[in-house]
Amino acid sequence: MRGVHSPRGAVGCLGGRPRGVAGDSDVVRAQVARGLAGESGEFVLQFGDADFTCRYRPMQALDGTIIGVSGLAQDMSAL
């Protein structure tokens, strides 16, 4: 996958934590915090020479308690 500069490669990023995939990014950290606060959202992240559209949403237990954040990033630079 073009644009993924993780030492683990594109497949190694699947299921990874944001910091392990995107590094220590203030943008990613802020968006994860918003997800943990119950918000869903979308943002663009420049990662190396690629632009990724990133979407996230909170994950909730059956009782509505937020237990994490689920996210997806798509490389838009090749489109």
How would you characterize this protein structure?
- Mean pLDDT is about 80; it is low at about 1-5.
- The protein has about 80 residues and is an alpha+beta fold.
- It is built from three helices and three strands; from the N terminus they run αααβββ.
- The radius of gyration is 13 Å and the shape is elongated.
- A three-stranded antiparallel beta sheet has the order 1-2-3, with helices on one face.
- It has helices spanning about 10-15, 20, 25-35; strands spanning about 40-45, 50-60, 65-75.
- The longest helix has 11 residues, at about 25-35.
- A hairpin with a 5-residue loop joins β2 and β3 (about 65-75).
Please describe the topology of this protein.
Layout: H1 9-13, H2 18-22, H3 26-36, E1 41-47, E2 50-60, E3 66-75
Antiparallel strand pairs: 1-2, 2-3
Helix content: 25-40%
Number of helices: 3
Mean pLDDT: 78
Task: Return residue spans where pLDDT drops below 50 for at least 5 consecutive residues.
Answer: 1-5
Main β-sheet, spatial strand arrangement = 1-2-3
Number of strands: 3
Q: What is the H/E order?
A: HHHEEE
Radius of gyration: 13 Å
Measured by DSSP, the beta-strand proportion falls in 35-45%
Q: Specify the overall morphology.
A: elongated
End-to-end separation in angstroms reads: 13 Å
